[in-house]
Amino acid sequence: MKVLQINVTVNTGSTGRIAEQIGSVIEDQGHKSFIAHSRKKVQSRSKTIQIGNKVDFYMHAINSRLFDNHGFSSKYATKKLVKTIKKIQPDLIHLHNLHGYYVHVGVLFNFLNSIKTPVVWTFHDCWPFTGHCAYFDRVDCEKWKKECHSCPLKSYYPSSLFLDNSSHNFKTKKELFAIHPNLTIVTPSHWLMKLTEQSFFKNSSIKVIHNGIDLSVFKPAQQDKDNHKQNLKRIVLGVASIWDSRKGLDDFIKLNDVLDDGFQIILVGLSKKQVNTLPSSMIGIERTENIEELVKLYSRADVYVNATYSDNFPTTNIEALACGTPVITYDTGGSPEAIDKNTGIVVERGNVEELKKAIDIISKEKTKFTADVCRERAINHFNKDERFMDYFNLYEKLINSSK
Q1: Which residue, 151, 162, 194, 201, could crosslink 132 as a Cys pair with Cβ 3.0–4.6 Å?
Q2: Is 45 exposed, middle or buried (0-12, 13-18, 19+ CB in 10 A)?
Q3: Beta bridge pairs of residue 208
């Protein structure tokens, strides 16, 4: 079996790590894994294929800003990718995020629609079935159910400075994406599956496979837990790869104002500028690829807070659980699916006062929200060896049925 995955990153960021771990499962089963990607390569077990270069990326970004045609640039780089795919002749092609200023979806899907190779597409957000945005729930827009136009999120990622091309993008995506005879869509959450079933993909095969993590890496750092017991302040942790209003940065600052002095907020993944502009009573840490340090922070925290305003199935939630830390999340997208009543609390989106109350509850009810129970939920539901084996089993089924 030869499987080719396509994603904006490999072995970095949430989707890049997912692609890498799926590739590792393929290799462990004695098969060949290829990952085509755009951003700078991090060490990978799979054979990697670079899509385009920095010039392609910047030209795509400029086109997107000026003409609102995200995903419809990088034509030469995508034609080169297609030639590489023809040489490899994979038995199955697995798509992840196709947005990110690196691929021309028209060129790619004109090719995919001309071959019989099974295609799996994991939706990590809503971009595949909208005319512009990755998440429309931040403004409760439902135009995507019929046809996008007059986009209220034009200035948000992938932002357009002037034109609104959402209607044309929507129609073109619908013509390209929904006609592939061997397309299987995977969503990491039931929330996104339900939305996809209401989109122009409603006649496609749609399955749910939750994200998984490496439980041998994300586990309680007991020494740090013991050391932390000597500290007076209780740690409220937030982690994101990019911090902005969508990820709840403003709400964390508001939360800092209402929490009593017994709590310490720590945010990981901030830019240097953001770290310098945080209130002095908050601790900001720049983005790190050092997983060991991240595990220590998860383990040291008394509670992990995910104040996201739009999300699919955040990996950080299950990373925190695996390290024995309960999770408080806004009722956003598929984020609540990571927890149950014994491992966290779901709070109304944007309600900072309720966020504070939930933190107080978890800090007081330590016999309920225990590290062991949190860890057990991660083991039972989000073990990467099981979740990514679900992908492998799906690959085998699709490849065998296509012969």
Answers
A1: 151
A2: middle
A3: 187
The two three-digit tokens of residue 102, written as one number: 């690196």
Residue indicated by tokens 């931040």: 138
Contact in structure between 91 and 29 (CB atoms under 8 Å):
no
Measure the CA–CA gap between 8 and 219, rounded to whole angstroms: 28
**Domain shared by 198 and 276, yes or no:** no
Judge if 182 and 44 occupy the same domain. yes
Q: What are 186-235's pLDDT values in tens digits?
A: 999 999 999 999 999 999 999 999 999 999 999 998 655 444 545 578 99
259 touches 359 (CB < 8 A): yes
Q: 73-90: per-residue pLDDT in tens? A: 999 999 999 999 999 999
| Cα R_g (the chain), whole angstroms | 21
Q: What is the CATH number of the domain that holds 305?
A: 3.40.50.2000
pLDDT single digits (tens) 150-168: 999 999 999 999 999 999 9
Per-residue burial over 182-194, b = 16 or more CB atoms within 10 Å of its CB, e = otherwise:
bbbbbbbbebbbe
Q: In whole angstroms, what is the distance from residue 367 CA to residue 377 CA?
A: 16
